[in-house]
Amino acid sequence: MEYFLTEEQVMIRDLARKIAEEKIAPKAQELDEKGEFPWEIIKVLAQSDLFRVFLPEEYGGLGGGVFELCLVTEELSRACSGVAVSYAASALGAFPILLYGTEEQKKKYLSDIASGKKLTAFAITEPEAGSDAGAIQTTAVKDGDHYVLNGTKCFITNGGEAEIYTIIAMTDKKKGARGASALIVEKGTEGFTFGKEEDKMGIRASATRELVFSDCKVPKENLIGKEGGGFIVAMKTFDSSRPGIGAQAVGIAQGALDRAIDYARERVQFGHPISSFQGIQHMLADMATQIEAARALVYAVARMVDKGCKDIARPSAMSKLFASDMAMKVTTDAVQIFGGYGYMKEYPVEKMMRDAKITQIYEGTNQIQRNIIALALIKEAAKRRKKK
Length: 388
Prior knowledge:
Layout: H1 7-24, H2 28-34, H3 39-47, H4 66-79, H5 81-100, H6 103-115, E1 120-123, E2 139-143, E3 146-157, E4 164-170, E5 180-186, E6 192-197, E7 208-219, E8 223-224, H7 230-266, E9 268-269, E10 272-273, H8 278-306, H9 313-338, H10 348-358, H11 366-387
Parallel strand pairs: 1-4
Antiparallel strand pairs: 2-3, 3-7, 4-5, 5-8, 6-7, 9-10
Helix pairs in contact: 1-4, 4-5, 4-7, 5-6, 5-7, 7-8, 7-9, 7-10, 8-9, 9-10, 9-11
């Protein structure tokens, strides 16, 4: 489909595609097997200015936004979503600062993020607080000119590799979710250490670690927004970032479809390539249609975010939900087209199927996305009834 990209957006997409094909694809299997963080590729992305595409010009960016982030994430995910999420997670960590940070915070941190000099991470999940953000146990107690952090975060993408962390912690546990606050914590701060690196099913090239805070003193100037506003910071961050997960899912699915088409043309059974069989043709047609529908939704929502549209929680959740469910189905179908070979690690669709699963889980499970969508629908219906 024609998405009417600007000349600059076409250049960004094509550059990301070139890097994906030349630098990432040849190493994807090795990175997956070793579970190795792709620092060499991250440096290439930084040198190519791709970390600048989602940040404003005044902070060293190129003046783009979530749409440009989605273009890059999609192309990188076609080759390896583990690399793609390492890139995109830096945007996730930057969004709280960009959305709610002071001018001093933006000037201090965003330029290093834009240059790729420093990676970022966002931390809300804990052992007992996944979907239930109100159950956060990490505390941030005000003590003079500092907040003292204590607690543990888990499953943090870019954990240990990032230099800048945006942390959601409780400054007043009595208030539940309204007692949460957002803070910037720099790697190397005394009392801030890292726990185990997780051994994951998919996106194995990305780093996923525990963050451990033990009497970690953070300057009060590192508070993002207002004390007690952390839950709002987190939810608005997710509203902006969820189309990026959708783009990741679209990229994974597109990569799987590309390989399934190539394989179907080459694989001969009963004296004919399997691409000549109607059953396979219908599968490919459905896969392509589902991908294009998801891409259209993701792009539309990303543009809504960049235009500053209000009440984007519902469409943002829809973009993540639809695209990730689609990616799981498309990659499963790709494995089916490959048959027994698709189940073998030497063929890439096996990895893509494993990678697709996480898009249904992180940044809010798809069950949570359905809750968000349904509640928005019910509230809108109630408003319409009041107007009658």
